[in-house]
Amino acid sequence: MPHFHIEYSANLEEVVDVGALCEAIRAEAVQIDAFPLAGVRVRATRVDHYAIADGNAKHGFIDLSIRLREGRSQDVKSDSITRIFATLKSFMSEALGTHSIALSAEIRDIDASLSPKFGTIRDHLETPS
Amino acid sequence: MPHFHIEYSANLEEVVDVGALCEAIRAEAVQIDAFPLAGVRVRATRVDHYAIADGNAKHGFIDLSIRLREGRSQDVKSDSITRIFATLKSFMSEALGTHSIALSAEIRDIDASLSPKFGTIRDHLETPS
Amino acid sequence: MPHFHIEYSANLEEVVDVGALCEAIRAEAVQIDAFPLAGVRVRATRVDHYAIADGNAKHGFIDLSIRLREGRSQDVKSDSITRIFATLKSFMSEALGTHSIALSAEIRDIDASLSPKFGTIRDHLETPS
User: Fold this and answer.
1) Do A119 and C106 touch (CB under 8 A)?
2) pTM (2 decimals)?
3) From the candidates B50, B63, B90, which should be mutated to test the interface with C, based on the most C CB atoms within 10 A?
4) Interface partners of C (3+ CB pairs, < 8 Å)?
5) Which helix (H) or strand (E) holds B41?
6) Residue C113 lies in a domain
7) How do strand A49-52 and strand A101-110 relate by DSSP bridges?
8) Contact A102, B115 (CB under 8 A)
9) What's the total number of domains in chain A?
10) Which chain B residues are closer than 8 Å to A7 by Cβ?
11) Could you list the residue range(s) of the whole structural domain that residue A54 is in?
């Protein structure tokens, strides 16, 4: 943990560099105490089929869901989502000026007693954290 | 908000017009008070790897998850999911007669205090809502 | 229900047989009382855009989310996720020895009153369950 899931409509593929967006969110997330570096996993899935608002094909969206191991206070989560969302909004500012795009985000808790994890990423970090 | 996420097994690609299914769900959703038009985002993701029930490759599924900003009563949510699921079932009725398919749906709340949003879709609606 | 959602980074495509992983998890799941056979749906989505930990492209992940109709005790859920995660870990043991990979899993409840379902899979099982 934490997990960052982005879904975006396929019509934004040429408007947004989604790989760079993942990297921008990662870079911001690892500077936030609530998100331990070795656990940060940002990913984005393109959706090819979608229907938005009044159904006009020009609309697009980027939706970010964050799953975080329970235990952080509401304030910490609120500050964290505010910073991450600001990163998303800033990354999208040019596109928002010219396109019909909806941005959204949420954080939800993961039940700590029902979320096993295991991995080797810590062994492969340049600077162990 | 609200978000409608469909996942479907790849073996239904030739059985179902998934773009038309997204549109059918959108068209029904925007007529339901609980779902503000400008916020409706229906999307579908095909899953290429799957294993269902007894593992027979003929089985398929369509699974719909709805995420809705908290605040609607249980009754409103129950009525809403009933209508949306009826749309899904009706859209699939012919395929259900000839194929092994599981349909499912759920609604869950989004924590309103942890779900920022921003966008330009309202500026691009033909009839502002 | 239950639903098993796997997301995996694209750089594991050549390291892991994801179809076989879905089948391994399905085969284990149907032996667990909490997971009724006809309802088991395991699927995996490859994510092409991702950014992990310190951003090094060599890192990868497999993340498994299970959605289960509410009503099982915490103990039952804990035992279930432990068995499923052990299957995942065992399936990945060779890859974990040579690659930087994070494995994770979680279970969360589905609100039974807001999750309609319908289907024909039971009619197509070789041995009806």
Assistant:
1) no
2) 0.95
3) B50
4) A, B
5) strand B41-47
6) yes
7) unpaired
8) no
9) 1
10) 5, 43, 45
11) 3-124
Task: Report whether A1 contacts A117 (CB < 8 A).
Answer: yes
Q: In 3D, which of C61, C23, C60, C59 has the Cα closest to residue C42?
A: C23
Tokens of C124: 């197509």
The answer as to whether B17 is a domain residue is yes
| Mean pLDDT taken over chain C | 96
pLDDT at A128: 53
Q: What is the CATH number of the domain that holds A90?
A: 3.30.429.10
Q: By three-state DSSP, how is residue A45 classified? A: strand
B5 and A9 within 8 Å at the Cβ level: the answer is no
Judge whether C129 lies within some domain: no
3-state secondary structure of A27: helix
> For residue C70, what are the β-bridge partners?
C72
CB of B102 within 8 Å of a chain C CB? The answer is: yes
Which tens digits make up the pLDDT trace of C26-55? 999 999 999 999 999 999 999 999 999 999
Could you report the per-residue pLDDT of B17-55, keeping only the tens digit for each? 999 999 999 999 999 999 999 999 999 999 999 999 999
Q: Do A103 and B111 touch (CB under 8 A)?
A: no
- State which residue of chain B sits closest to A86, comparing Cα positions: B116
With an 8 Å Cβ cutoff, is A82 touching chain B? Answer: yes
Distance CA A119, CA A105 (A): 27
Can you read off the two tokens belonging to residue C94? 């060779």
Rounded-to-integer distance, Cα B94 and Cα B91, Å: 8
Q: Tell me if A129 is assigned to some domain.
A: no
Which stretch of DSSP H or E encloses residue B108? strand B101-110
CA distance A117 to chain B (A): 22
Q: Are residues C120 and B48, on separate chains, in Cβ contact within 8 Å?
A: no
Instruction: Please report where in the chains the tokens 């097994």 appear, as a residue.
Output: B9
Chain A residues in contact with C50 by the CB 8 A cut-off are: 22, 41-44
